[in-house]
Amino acid sequence: MELRTFARGFEISETVESYLDEKLEKVRRALKDYVGREGMHIEARFDKDGPYYTLRLQMHFNGKDIVVQEKANDVYGVIDAASDSFEKAIKKEREYYKSHHKANMKGTIEALAEELTPKYSLEDEEYEQIDSVKRVFLRTVSLEEALEQMEVMNHAFFVFRNAETGELNMLYRKNGKYGLIEFEE
């Protein structure tokens, strides 16, 4: 993961830059599963205003910009404070992402699907090709969440209401890739 540093009001020495890199090692460890993603980098912006140093750390992670800004009397103090706050913010986002998008979604959908009973009887001869009927709730989710849900459930398709457009969509798997059908009402 690349570290990009910028400074305004003073020059960043090699010592300061290596100290910052060392302090951000905890962040890299927290992101070990995500480090291989293309384009992931941490942006560090130093600013000296009078006797105070300000450090702004920023990173784009899981579709969100995580930004932390700290102020201190010396450059090493601001690095310590900002790196600790940044590590906490990254861990918080990582835990939120794990708990809300993987385990909880899988358990909720499966529990709801098991509890619901079919509305129709398939005893008629004209419907003998249909093996079973399940009734599930139509969820309103973003496209990213629908992809995650499909992966978790390992289904061939997923029908949902798109949170951004409000339209009914169907996501399906075809030859290792995904397709999206947008229904018009």
Automatic annotation (TrEMBL):
InterPro entries: HPF/YfiA_ribosome-assoc, RHF-like, RHF/RaiA, Ribosom_S30AE_C, Ribosom_S30AE_C_sf. Coiled coil: none annotated. GO terms for cellular component: cytosolic small ribosomal subunit. Residues 127-180 form the Sigma 54 modulation/S30EA ribosomal protein C-terminal domain. Transmembrane segments: none annotated. Keywords: Ribonucleoprotein, Ribosomal protein, Translation regulation. It holds the Pfam family Ribosomal_S30AE. GO terms for molecular function: ribosomal small subunit binding. GO terms for biological process: negative regulation of translational elongation. The keyword Lipoprotein does not apply. This is 30S ribosomal protein S30. It comes from Fervidobacterium thailandense.
